[in-house]
Amino acid sequence: MATLFVARSANLSKWASDVGLPKNIFKVGVVDGGADAVAAALAAGWAAEKDWTLVKKVEVGDWTEEEALQRLSAKEKPVDPNYYPRLKGAAGIYKLTPTTVGNHLIVARAMAGNESLDFKLKVADYANYLIQFAQPPKAASE
Q1: 51 CA to centre of own chain
Q2: For labelling, which of 51, 84, 94, 104 has a CA lying 20 to 30 Å from the CA of 13?
Q3: Per-residue confidence (pLDDT) for residue 42, from 0 to 100
Q4: Do 9 and 24 meet the contact criterion of CB atoms below 8 Å apart?
């Protein structure tokens, strides 16, 4: 069983804001296995950083990382690892703006009939946004 996860690095976020990227930088990936496999992947790190923390994870069946990243890339543009040498070829690094995620939440809350559209974005909101667009579509029978 594969696990789709979203992780965040405080050091990479600080670096991103220093080089002109939004500070909301996340790693989206898929690993085979459960919590132990995700923990091992986080410990290995990406982009020369070892301080990655798990924001959210979801089991996705037998999906691969390439399929998830391709699906997510249809909605959000990943950070080009060839343009930023610090990323060193790390795939699945995405930059998000508060406007994009905020607009998505406003529409979702309005469609759900939520009276209050006043909210403050949290890291979990960014993770939910990424997972929603990266995970495989639900089967018609579900």
Answers
A1: 16
A2: 104
A3: 86
A4: no
